Amino acid sequence: MPNTYSQIYIQIVFAVKGRQNLIPKENREELHKYISGIVHNRDQKMLSIFAMPDHAHLLIGMKPSIAISDIVRDIKAGSSQFINEKEWVKGKFHWQEGFGAFSYSRSQIDQVIKYILNQEQHHKKVTFREEYLDFLKKFDVEYDEKYLFEWIE
Fold this sequence. Notes:
By secondary structure, the chain is α+β, with helices and mostly antiparallel strands.
């Protein structure tokens, strides 16, 4: 879009269907590269990504040329197909429905990148459920408990 200027930073969080630990550590980097390629091909900027065995965090610099739900749909569909073609799991791999999207200012970006890259250490102290509910609380997001991710603790 000519004459359109923006600076939009969104952290996106989504989980593996059934919250199973299906993303192997040894395949993490390959998955990160693949998802980053999807984001790049949609003319958006991947700032940080980290996939835990059961969920993923992405920080994307977004242009207003695409809706958040469209980029998440493309990421989840493309990466599911990629994981299934690579046969990393027995049966079919799927992401759960839904996602969290949280916006940040430019001054917060370095802190958010560090947070995302430190997921393994973070989750030694805090469960994914605690983390996600904390995001909803911090960002003052109204939600219905029955529509949150399936929790396996």
